[in-house]
Structure formats: structure tokens, C-alpha cells
Amino acid sequence: MPLITAGADQTLAYLDASTPRPAGPKLIINTSRGAVVRDAALERPDIHAAILDVWDGEPQLRAARLRDPKLALASPHVAGYSLEAKIAATRMMHEAVCAWLGRPPSWTGAEFLPRRVLDPPSQTISAVLGELVDLAGDDARTRALALVAAPERGPAFEALRRNYALRREFSACAIPRSHPHARWLEAAGFELLHPG
């Protein structure tokens, strides 16, 4: 969801403390823009849990939010930090410069994106996903920002983002068709390898 600050399609404060509340408990997952979900909205009694990759007011995260028991998972605005995304952005810049120069593009970046074959010794879904992204580590490092003095928290948040290790996207990875959770992983974007 893009951040649109005015007009009929405004998404700023799409979810806030006073937004009408459909019945039932809610899990909020925000990986779009921090200000789409205002911080005060997470105090509502109908919000039971939140997964946040983006934060209202970032990079200045509130220590209280980082300590909030409703916060199920935290990450430092890195949901789109993948090798594929970085190569795609570089390719788009290359294509734009080539168009400006009146030349055909000569680079795709494909050589940097070989398929990654995963054959994990563990047969669990979490072990497979853990080979690509360290959710527990991301969560711990982000929550640890609550211990950083308020004036330094913003720069520390930016340092987490700047130093984040690029991961591969699920669609760039393949697993054996014999994996016990192959169908679930295929639905998540993984390629299934035929035997032999």
C-alpha cells in the first residue's frame, strides 16, 4: 500500500485509533508504510497482535512499542531487502540511462541470480525459511533498539537497515519435490525439483 497523504484514496492513517472497527480480534501486519497504521491504533482493544516491518514515525521508534507484548514480530523495514529487488532496481536504472542515451540495454543482472537449491537436513518449514531469513534475529535486533537512548535510536535503526544482509526471495529457491511440505512451500513461491 503506498502512502497517499490526501484525496479520496488517502492511505495516511488508514488505520488509526478512531477507524471504524469491524467485529473480532485482529492481527495487524504492516510491511508497506509506517504512517498507514498510526501507532495509536495499536493500542485499540480489538488489535490483539502486530507484525511490523515499518513503523509510524520511523526511524524514531518508540521504546514502548518495541516492548509491547502485542508485538509478535519486529523487523527494521527490510521486507523488500532481497538480492532480487536490488538487481531489479539496478536493472531499471540501467534501462533508464540506456533509454536516455538512445542505446539498447545491455545488462540484466541475471548472472547474479542463480537458482538456489535448498536441501535442508531438517524437514520443517521453519528450517527451510530459516535458510533465507533470520526472523528471530531480526526481531531480537529490532527490539534491542528499546535499550538505545532516544536520540540514538533513529541512527541505530538506520544502521540495522544499512547493514542488513541481502536475502534471496522464495521464487529464486528450489526444494526437492520429495520434501514433506513441498506443496506448502510451492504455494509460497518455491520451485519444486523433479527427482534425478
Key phrases:
196 residues, alpha/beta, Ribosomal Protein S8, Chain: A, domain 1, three-stranded parallel beta sheet, 6 helices, 6 strands, 12% strand
Structural account:
- This protein is an alpha/beta fold.
- It has a domain at 58-193: Ribosomal Protein S8, Chain: A, domain 1 (2-Layer Sandwich).
- Helix content is 30%, strand content 12%.
- It is built from six helices and six strands; from the N terminus they run E-E-H-E-H-E-H-H-H-E-H-E.
- It has helices at 63-67, 83-101, 125-130, 135-143, 150-162, 182-187; strands at 26-30, 47-52, 71-74, 116-117, 173-176, 191-193.
- The strands form two sheets. The protein has a three-stranded parallel beta sheet. A three-stranded parallel beta sheet has the order 4-5-6.
- Strand 5, helix 6 (182-187) and strand 6 (191-193) form a beta-alpha-beta unit.
- The radius of gyration is 20 Å and the shape is globular.
- The relative contact order is 0.13.
- The model has no long low-confidence stretch (mean pLDDT 89).
